[in-house]
Each structure stands twice: as C-alpha cells, then as structure tokens.
Design goal:
The chain is about 30% helix and about 25% strand. It folds into 2 domains: about 190 residues, 3-Layer(bba) Sandwich (FAD/NAD(P)-binding domain); about 180 residues, D-Amino Acid Oxidase, Chain A, domain 2 (2-Layer Sandwich). It has about 425 residues and is an alpha+beta fold. The chain has 10 helices and 21 strands. Helix 1 runs parallel beside helix 4 and helix 7 runs antiparallel to helix 8. The radius of gyration is 22 Å and the shape is globular. Strands 5, 6, 13, 14, 15, 16, 17, 18 and 21 form a 9-stranded mixed beta sheet that branches. It has a 6-stranded mixed beta sheet with strand order 8-2-1-12-20-19. It starts with 7 loop residues before the first strand and ends with a helix.
Length: about 425
Amino acid sequence: MNESTPLKLAVIGAGPVGLALALHAASALPDAQITLFDARPADKDISGDPRTLALSLGSVQLLQRLGAWHAESAQPIAEVHVSQQAPSLVAAFSKRLAEPELTIRALDEAVPMLGAVLSYGAIVAPLQAVWLEAARREPKRLFSRFGAKVDALKNVADPAGVEVDSGIAERFDLAVIAEGGVFASSAKKELVAGGRWPALRHDYRQTAWVGIATFAAPPAGVAATTPSPGIAYERFTRHGPAALLPLKDGRAGLVWCVDSSDDPVRELNDAQRVTVLNTIFHPRTPHLAAVSPLKEFPLGMSAERTLTDGRTVRIGNAAQTLHPVAGQGLNLGMRDAFELVRSLTRNRDVDAVLRKLEWQRAPDRWAMITATDFLARSFTWTLPGAGAARGLGIAALQALGPVKSAIARQMMFGSR
C-alpha cells in the first residue's frame, strides 16, 4: 500500500462488533473499500432475537455516533446494585457485614446513564439496516457478502495482504475477524491460527441459565419492594453470580450462574426456580413472580495472547470470550472496533498499525480479562474465608468513593 492506494478491508462477522466496525470504517475511512462477510442471509430477520445484552455508556455513544441507536428499544441503566449472600460465619458475628453491598449510580457519576439493556436483535437489526443503506449509496466502495461463509484466510506477501476464501478467493490489505461466539463454540472457530501463540483457555465448570424474569408484588407479610425502572441487580452466591437486568417492558433479563457439578437449577421446574431466586437475591430486590423457560450455556474464558497474525486481526469474542460476571464482553469488543478504526485513520501503514495495536489495546483488554477471570474463579475457590474476603472487598469499594467512581468509569469507557 501507499498513500494513494485505497485500503481494502474485509470484515468477517456481521454481529454487533463486526457491523459497528464496518460502519465506523465506512465513515472514518472515506476512501477505503470495505467488504462485510457473514454466513447469515441478508433477508433473515434478526430483529426478534431476544438474547439480553447490557451495553456500557461508551457502547451506547458509539451506536449513537453510527446512527444505529434506537432509544425506544432500550432500558437505560440508572443504577447497579451489587451484593453478596453472607457466609454463615460472617452472618453469625456481624449483621452489619452480613449483607455487603455496592451501589453505583449514574447520578453520582454525572452521566445520563451507566449503560442500557436491550435485546441482541434490537442492536444488530438497526446496525445492519444502516450498513445496507450505506452500501446502497456507495455500491462501488461498500460491499455485502451475506450468505457467504468464510472458510479460510491466508496471509500472502509481495505485496503484503490476506486472501479471504468464501467460495471464491479475494485479496485484501487487512482482514478483521469479528465472528465470535460463546465459550463452548469459540474453540471450534479455527478460521485461522489465533495468533503466534495458543490462546489462554479456562473452563470454569459453571453453567449460565438465562431467560426473562417477571416482577410481582411480594407475598403477604413481606415488606413491599416496588420495582424501580433502570436498576440492575447482581448477587454473589456460593454457587456463582446471579443478575437481573432491567428491560424496557418492566421485566428483567436473568443470568444465573451455578456450579455445573452441583447444579441447583437443572432439576427444578419454573415455579421452583422462582422460589429459589426469591431466596437468594438481596432483600432490596423486587419480588419475582415468574421466569421464562431457561436456556443453559457452559462458561469459560478464552483469550488470544496476540490479536494479530500477519494481516489478520481478531476483535470482540473472536479475541476474547469472557465470563458474564461483569457483563463486559460485548463492550470490550466495541472498544476493539473503535480503536482499530481510529488507528487506521491516523496511519495508513497497516503493518505499523497492527504492531502498535497489541500494546494500545493491552491495558484495557488485559485489565478486563484479568478482573473478570479473577471474579469468576473466586466462586470456585474452596479456601476457608474466600467468600468473606470477596464480601469485604464489596463493602470496601462502597466506602471508598473515589475508587468506586474509578471502577464505574472503567466499566463505562474502558481504560483510556
């Protein structure tokens, strides 16, 4: 490449991260030729996909910038309440420490929201619509390859580039792999070698049960707790974390993580699951009336040691698959996409951009990977007092305002 040669960019994967990157590149790199690949047919309706996702404020701002934010589909997060079921030993000696809790509020951080909750379809469908409209306006520069599965990538030299094989071979200056997935499927996506060294992988031997929860008035004799819109609840239990994410319709997305070898959820029916959930969440949490049938996913961590391999780069879940305890996997991928495009706008030397990308993304990426992995592993520790130590950490964060604010900013915007 030279300064007068347009960049030829391939984006593989039309999920939230791939679409966001393609759209951002189309706007920020007006001379670049961008081709978006995905095995999914373009006419497949993705808008109804109900999977619940939590976006940070930074991700919301990126979608707004891309013209793909539909506020009417999203529930803003005004507050996050984190608490832990007290270990019996702590509860026996101190009521004050029996229920450690942490509250982070948008009002305290002087932001309109901490983030927002919406369905996967409500994120992807607007992004895809904006992309297809942009491709319609610029058919000689922006290309869609929906229904085209990429079978292989091959780095080539002289001049440097990458060959993308989707039934026909096409040559590009750079290929971005944004085709991720959950932990169980990440090991099977061997499109190319995942960098110069094997990925870090750890199976937490936990299962995530996900679905939709409906709130109701509490039973007689229980103090009334009215559901407040915009509050996300996370509860650390001895089996693992459980979370309720507020939805636009007043219900909540449920993520319930448990030990796979001692699963307290699998054999229960829906009514029994509601009963158990009402016993494990903090007393402040509104009473639950019902849960939808739950789906299960195995949980683990997979993190590429390096993002780049020749002229290919991995972002989002293709680069790292995280435990949902911090709800940051998608947000980290969105930041991957934004930073890659920003680097390309500042330097047309693709090789130089890819060399710098490793250390540019390292603080944000590895801080999030390490923190999430530490929290996830803490639920598997058998050391006496491990749960109590985690609870003391929650209480300490609540007491240390500046530290709590710094963590809130990290969750909203990543490392800057």
